[in-house]
């Protein structure tokens, strides 16, 4: 392999000089070019976005796949660019065990027939879980990982380059300052040499003239290098600024992905609820359920002492009638709408971004919702779409 020794030596010298300069800045022994306040805010916002995105991503991974060994295996397959082998969910494994047990005990026995029903339900629950994991990974985890491994790496690279450009610019400023000081000193010596004795005049004049010309050239060179460094720094600062301002678009994209994740999660739990309700109805219609539930009334295992899964909750039976809701005497607040919202039913109020509405709450209402009023219109509005004003 052909090594360029001079280039390696030059790069090593630049690296060492920057390290010394950075250390002197930390110790307050060297001047530092400061970025404007808006740029510093963009940097802080970008760092905050990266840190929290990383935490949310890692914890979502833990929630979706609690097994660390499985997560490591999936990570290795991704790095090797190979497809992850299909892995049955715990629900599917449990359902398969129940179905195999039913064959051993006899499908016609009370225990065997019940095992078949419960095992089939567990398999469907496992299938719903598999679909939930796959969809969540595509709609939520993948965009977060793409930001961390793609956009953020680009931002980090340009920030490091900007820091190097700043160090180069400060080094040029220091050299220019030093050259100006030396040039002024040489000019002073050149002027005072005219007052010396005649015998030493020629020698002193020649030396001062040569020194003056030398520092003039050094000053011109330093000024040229500083102009070049300033241009490169300004160009790199603009590139970095554009990338940092793109964090707002990242937030919008992550917001959309978060809403999709919530929808997928709600659909998954709804499927599980429906499967369990169906299983409960099947077991309730089974003639063997009489034997299972033959306990004295009022006993701890009496089904009548529990609220059935499909029974309406207190809030559902006593449904909130929007027309009858009256605002409290005190406690109403103004709120600014952040995003457009289309009402899901007649009890909700459609919203338009940037409009102002009056909001308040009523006893027994879900904390995620408020009552909103706009003129003669009234309805429930989601809290996450509002900015409450003092």
TrEMBL record:
Any GO BP annotation: apoptotic process
CDD domains noted in UniProt: BAR_Endophilin_B2 (cd07617), SH3_Endophilin_B1 (cd11945)
Record localization: Cytoplasm; Golgi apparatus membrane; Mitochondrion outer membrane
Major localization class: cytoplasm
Spans annotated as Disordered: 288-307
Protein family according to the UniProt entry: Belongs to the endophilin family.
UniProt-listed PANTHER family: DREBRIN-LIKE PROTEIN-RELATED (PTHR14167:SF68), SH3 DOMAIN-CONTAINING (PTHR14167)
Protein name as catalogued: Endophilin-B1
Source species of the chain: Cyprinus carpio carpio
């Amino acid at each position: 392999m052909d090594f360029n020794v001079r280039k390696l030596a030059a790069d090593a010298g630049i690296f060492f000089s920057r390290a010394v300069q950075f250390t002197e800045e930390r110790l307050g022994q060297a001047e530092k070019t400061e970025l404007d306040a808006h740029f510093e805010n963009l940097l802080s916002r970008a760092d905050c976005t990266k840190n929290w995105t990383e935490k949310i991503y890692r914890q979502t991974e833990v929630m979706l796949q609690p097994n660390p060994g499985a997560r490591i295996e999936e990570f290795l397959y991704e790095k090797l660019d190979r497809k992850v082998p299909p892995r049955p969910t715990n629900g599917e494994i449990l359902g398969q065990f129940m179905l195999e047990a039913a064959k051993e005990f006899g499908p016609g026995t009370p225990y065997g027939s019940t095992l078949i029903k419960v095992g089939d339900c567990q398999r469907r629950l496992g299938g719903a879980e598999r679909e939930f994991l796959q969809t969540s990974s595509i709609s939520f985890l993948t965009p977060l990982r793409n930001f961390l491994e793609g956009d953020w790496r680009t931002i980090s690279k340009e920030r490091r380059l900007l820091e190097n450009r700043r160090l180069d610019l400060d080094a040029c400023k220091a050299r220019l300052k030093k050259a100006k000081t030396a040039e002024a000193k040489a000019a002073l010596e050149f002027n005072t040499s005219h007052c010396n004795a005649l015998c030493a005049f020629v020698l002193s004049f020649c030396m001062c003239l040569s020194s003056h010309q030398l520092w003039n050239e050094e000053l011109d060179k330093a000024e040229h290098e500083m102009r070049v460094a300033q241009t490169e720094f300004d160009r790199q600062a603009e590139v970095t600024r554009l990338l940092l301002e793109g964090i707002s678009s990242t937030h919008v994209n992550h917001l959309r992905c978060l809403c999709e994740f919530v929808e997928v999660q709600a659909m998954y739990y709804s499927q599980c609820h429906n499967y369990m309700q169906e299983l409960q109805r099947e077991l309730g219609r089974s003639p063997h359920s009489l034997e299972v539930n033959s306990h004295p009334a009022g006993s701890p295992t009496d089904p009548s002492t529990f609220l059935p899964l499909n029974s309406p909750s207190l809030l559902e039976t006593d449904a909130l009638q929007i027309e009858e809701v009256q605002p409290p005497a005190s406690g109403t607040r103004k709120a600014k709408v952040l995003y457009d919202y289309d009402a899901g039913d007649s009890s909700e109020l459609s919203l338009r971004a940037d409009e102002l509405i009056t909001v308040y709450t009523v006893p027994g209402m879900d904390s995620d919702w408020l009552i909103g009023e706009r003129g003669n219109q009234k309805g429930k509005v989601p809290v996450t779409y509002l900015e409450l004003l003092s």
